[in-house]
Structures are given as C-alpha cells and as structure tokens.
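With this grant's support, we have settled on a layout for protein records. An illustrative entry appears below exactly as we store it:
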Amino acid sequence: MHTSSADQAWAAVTAADPTRLDRDGLACLLSSIERVRAACAAVEVVAVRRSRALADRGAGEPAENLLTSATGSSSRQAHLATGREHACEAMPAIESALSNGSLSAAHVDAAAVVHGRLDPDAAAAFADHAPDLAQRASTLNVDAFERECRNLARHLQQRADA
C-alpha cells in the first residue's frame, strides 16, 4: 500500500467516532479499516518471507511457528499467512495489489488456496493470470473472486490434462 494511502486510512480509522456516523460515513470508515488491514497483511507477507529465509539459514524457526509464538495466532491463521506469502511469491501482481490496497488479504487467501491445489503446470498457468486476477479482485467481493479463481483453475487443469 502506498504510504500516504495507508497513513490516510489509519488517520481516518483512529479519528472516527462510529457512534456519530451515518450510513455513508460508516461505509467510508469500513473502507478505511480494510485498507489498513491490507497494508498490515502486505507487511506480514514480507515478514513471513524474511522469517522463511532466516529459517532456511538456520537462524530462526519456521514462519508458522514464529507467527503463533509472536502474535498468538492460531495455527490456522499462521498457515493462511504462510500460504499468502507463497501465493505472493508466485504471483507478484497479487502482492502488488495487496500492497496498494486494491485487494484484501482474504482475496489473496482465496487465490492462494486455489493455486496451492494445482499441479505444477496448472499452477504456473494460473500464476500467469495474476495481473488479470488482481484487477478482477479489485471489483469483486471475496466470494465472487474465489469462484472466479476456482473456475479459472478448473479450466486450466482441464487444458493441462487434455
């Protein structure tokens, strides 16, 4: 996420009094909250990547272990975070969209789950579609985006099998 956008979102969140907002004000506040969450998730992706690199060198524990011990996250949450990092590594356009706040961590999780279930050839083809997926994610809710990811994966897997 661009620093000024994250800063503006954070300022809006911390200054808001939801008890005094009308419907449109609440919608703006909720949008700001989601931009802050995306910024945090983007930084978490980089932290998980660094943790993995340290663990590979023997200078730290696996990322999932660090996430659970340092944050109190559940093993499921830690697993999602590491899956998010793997997806971002395979699909830089997805990571970029998360960083700039145009999609949420839940969107990345949806793409990560689908990508992770594919065989290597279909996964590579899926990753080739990452720029389009990132653009589509910016206009779809998570449920619709997950359906699109599954449909794309099904199509790519059928093509790979043929």
Remarks:
- The chain has nine helices and no strands.
- The two ends are 40 Å apart (CA to CA).
